[in-house]
Amino acid sequence: MTEVGFTRLDPLEGSFVEMMELERIDPNIYRAGYVFEEPYALYGGQVAAQSLRAAGLTVDADRRPHSLHGYFLRPGDASQPTVLQVHRDRDGRSFSARRVVALQNGKVIFNMSCSFAAPFDSPEHSEHMPVEEAPMGTTSALPRMFGFEARLTEQVYESRDYPLRFWARCTEDLGDPAEDQLMHLCALTYLSDISSGVGAWNTAEYRSGSSLDHAVWFRQDVDMNSWVLMDLHPESVSRGRGLYRGRLGTESGEQVATIAQETLFRPVH
């Protein structure tokens, strides 16, 4: 087992639930006004979760997100509000498609396409998560994340900087998952951008950096007030970019989401 852990990068305290409270300016425009001082660019999981929340507020309540694909275009600023412009591309009999453009100071920092689907019965098949080990041991805070805690488990890959497999949950009350599943999936999205599977290939000379694009496929409903396992796997590094994939699942081994992300992979200066 590789001895790695999360180190809190700052002493900030904040609320994920308050972060997800959006001001409705227009039927298709929302303002994310939760701001704070931070010496880093805006955490990508924050703007992705807020964008999904804004998109979800424009669809029927019985339609839940099943996928999102986002591109990080410019560094955001945590001390400034973000305007979220939702484009209602289509509402069909079973699916609703949305695009969200996130802006600060009139410039696009992030854009996202996401799709929502009405429930539909079908056969269920899925690989189980790789470990059944319960989330036991020391609890630690997740760096830069509000309202979340983590517990480590056995590591598959060596990593210089942060674990690639760990348990996490939201410590704030997100409400009944059956009544506001969107909120729980926003919490999952917020979590999904932390750590990096490419960290397995970090060296003293090269390391993974900023997220370039991010995708999440939501497989099952989830309760983010319960422990979920995050399991990340490196795929490739080439031409200054790294690609990894990941899975999130419950204590019972059920997969609830699949993720993939490309990051910068550049020399350490």
Secondary-structure blueprint:
Blueprint lengths: L15 H4 L2 E5 L2 E4 L11 H13 L7 E9 L9 E10 L3 E10 L2 E11 L21 E3 L6 E5 L12 E6 L10 H12 L13 E13 L9 E11 L2 E10 L4 E13 L2
Antiparallel strand pairs: 1-2, 2-4, 3-6, 3-10, 4-5, 5-6, 7-8, 8-9, 9-11, 10-13, 11-12, 12-13
Helix pairs in contact: 2-3
Offer a few descriptive terms.
single chain, 269 residues, mainly beta, 13-stranded antiparallel beta sheet, 13 strands, 11% helix, globular
Provide a descriptive summary of the structure in words.
The protein contains 3 helices and 13 strands, in the order H-E-E-H-E-E-E-E-E-E-E-H-E-E-E-E. The protein has helices at residues 16-19, 44-56, 181-192, and strands spanning 22-26, 29-32, 64-72, 82-91, 95-104, 107-117, 139-141, 148-152, 165-170, 206-218, 228-238, 241-250, 255-267. Strands 1-2-4-5-6-3-10-13-12-11-9-8-7 form a 13-stranded antiparallel beta sheet, with helices on one face. Helix 2 (44-56) runs antiparallel to helix 3. The longest helix has 13 residues, at 44-56. It is globular, with a radius of gyration of 18 Å. The relative contact order is 0.17.
Give the H and E element order: HEEHEEEEEEEHEEEE
Residue windows where pLDDT falls under 50 for at least 5 positions: 7-11
**Oligomer type:** single chain
Order of strands, widest sheet: 1-2-4-5-6-3-10-13-12-11-9-8-7
Please state the structural category: mainly beta
Mean pLDDT: 90
Strand share of the residues? Answer: 35-45%
**Roughly how much helix do the residues carry, as a percent range?**
10-25%
State the major sheet.
Answer: 13 strands, antiparallel
How many strands in all? 13
Backbone CA Rg: 18 Å
DSSP summary: helix tally: 3
Global morphology: globular
The end-to-end span amounts to: 30 Å
